[in-house]
Amino acid sequence: MSTAPVIVAQDAPPDGVWRRALRHKGFVVGAIVLLVFIVLGFGAPWLAPHDPYAQSLMRRLRPPAWAPNGSWTYPLGTDSFGRDYLSRLMHGARLALIVAFSAALLAGAIGTILGVVAGYMRGRVDRAISLLISTRLALPSLLVALAVLQVAGSGILVVVLVLGLTLWDRFAVVLRTAVLQIGRLDYVLAARASGASHARIMARELAPNILGHFLVVFSYEAGQAVLAATALSFLGLGIQPPEPTWGLMMAEGRNWLMVNPWLIAIAGFALMLLVLAMNLVGDALRDVLTPGERL
Amino acid sequence: MSAPVLAVEDLRVELATAVGGLKAVRGVSFAIARGETFALVGESGSGKSMTALALLDLLPRNARRSVGTLRLDGVEIGALPEPALRRLRGNAAAMVFQEPMTALNPVLTIGEQMTEGLLTHMPETPTVVAARRAVDLLARCGVGEPERRLLQFPHELSGGLRQRVMIATALMTGPRLLIADEPTTALDVTVQAQILDLLRELQRDLDLAILFITHDLALVRRFAARVGVMYAGRIVESGPTAAVVEAPSHPYTRRLLACAPSLAAPRGHRLGFLSGLPPRLLCTPVGCQFRARCDVAGDACATDPPLRESAGGVAYECIHPPSEIAVRGPDMRSPPPTGAEARAGAPDAEAASAAPLLRAHGITVTYRLRGGFLARATTLTAVRDASLEIPPGRVLGLVGESGSGKSTLARVVLGLETPQAGQVTIGGMALGTLDRRARARAVQPVFQDPYTSLNPRRTIGEIVRAPLDILGLHARDERAEVAAAMLERCGLPRHMLGAYPVQLSGGQRQRVAIARALVSGPRLVVCDEPTSALDVSIQSQILNLLQDLQASLGLTYLFISHNLAVVRHLAHRVAVMHRGVLVETGDAEQIFADPQHAYTRQLIAAARG
Q: Would you call A190 and B491 a contact, using CB atoms and an 8 Å cutoff?
């Protein structure tokens, strides 16, 4: 009987993921930006230079430090109530991140369960769930969210629930397809032949192989949740003043567009940067987690 | 001799990979005359397909080609710019690819695809003339109702018909050279024989030069006048097919031929043996690349080997003269493991009288095919009233072409599919009454594709150990040891326990799959085409392993394959399946010597050629 010699690894094994991620430019840039937002947002109570709620009529509408008449006391200036803009931006980042991750997690849980069950059980269950997905896709999610918020009132919990319940479709579609493909592979058949239960097959054979797909959709949906939450705030629904959400800050800035355009521009730029970072990380994860996977 | 249609000197291809330059083709030279077939034969990674693609510069983006001389029809084309090359492709030289299912564009009709090339190369051709020619060529390639086919789409044709269309399309512009890259590999045996006949006939009538790329030595023997054997990017031996195949000179060719099961060899003999894997060809390979796996090799092999002449016009690249290789080449059969002969299955009479281990009776499997949203559902009978028995310790070979229902029957025997009618009993217990754990202890599978049968996110150790965890066999802390022992028994070293499947070769993965199947000690193993995805030399390793394990563990196999030579090599009994029906069952020797059913006769004739 032969003892075949070991061959040198041609593709990196799954535990080489970190090394590959750190070599991926998009991942590094996105992750650093995201990390900065996380540190500034969650560290806001300690890092922010001023109280984000403290108003003062004496220092209304100060421009940012680099503009004429700006000062480094208020690096990004102040808003129309004289509150420090940078401090509000940092606290707003925390709210945005909380809403994004909670809503994406809730949506991910719903979508993953539906998608995996549909893909694994196939047949009638699949058709029923697919109908549910189609129905969800036919609903204009932002309008539904507006209507629900109008009725149910506002607050961070309601926003998370509404977004979580409307953003699960992509998880369901992607994971259903992934499970349909993976479930057909011989190793799942081999596990069934070994006497493994459905629960064991889902946990040990499917879960590790769809984790990549989940993370990619998650990072994308988190970005979508930030955008949706900001839009709701901007429209006056969702989280209410005086909370420093970016949407509220931009809505407020709209009134002073001619006097101080920075009010709307900086919050908008922060929003763009955060969503871009999330999408960069998502794209990079797809490259890093599924290199040449035979799917 | 007139000038050859194709003359290649010193063709080289280098691929840029993440880990450095890979020298895929390292100085290949050959020539093909009019009306001649030259076969390039080799295992995967030997560089044969790269050579074919390099001729018309159709290489992937990361490849770089260099060539000494490359003459097509006497014209030097080695340094032609892309637009000039484009005029040659599909005009003076045409290609036929392996996979007829993907080589045709699904949204264009056959007529559009066939005339496209001709109208591109000769825009002044009237469409009617092009269509006329397409009809002629389709008829000539054995496609019935050629006028109607022009308006059909690829999905309306079978695989065999599509390959005929591909060949007809390649001939539209009247090329002098046809490059056929594994043109019959994706087809069933009987269809394969028809396509080869067609190519032979076309060659005779049109005086075509054919470059035939294949991994299958049996095909070369039947089809090509001359052959070049490729190994590690070089032609290591070339010459008239008969001389090369009957009396191989290069140690690699000798081994490779001994590895291939044949319909002529005595049943149950051990296949030849080629240990190890081909070299990786990174950096700059120096010396004979086969020396690591060669048993004639000495210190002198570390320098580039000279080209030697051998009897019958054969040239081979080796430092050793033919006499030395023949003398020093030891017995090519690998030694059987000790004690295996003694237990090589119970005597036939005894086995025959024992109660069968597997008994399948009247199995019928019907699928309901759902139409569209409002379309009516139709049914498809995959297996109809199939009955078979296997005595303990015996191997039943189940033979059939794709779609014959053999894999469906395998899933029924594994208990993964419930038949509409019929019953399977294993060791006297009805499969339907067993819970999943009892069923798993009775029967285990080995699948075809080792690239999809192992979970890529689990280590080898975890994969082999999993059945023990599921079935609760052995004490928890002993399981890793039991799994390691089974892996060793399947020929994999212990340190591979922590490796992931991507780090293993196809043959090694198949050993892991076998270890996983056997670790829980099943009595029946269902092998569904276990070697079809593997190269000849790896196939022989796996077949020898399966044979040894069967003998030493007293296993019973249901061995499914489309390859008659492989089945004949391993099976005591043979069952032939055709369109869901078992048309013939009997003793292996008897079926191959004296087939009763017309379909069996057809299969065997196609495989013999």
A: no
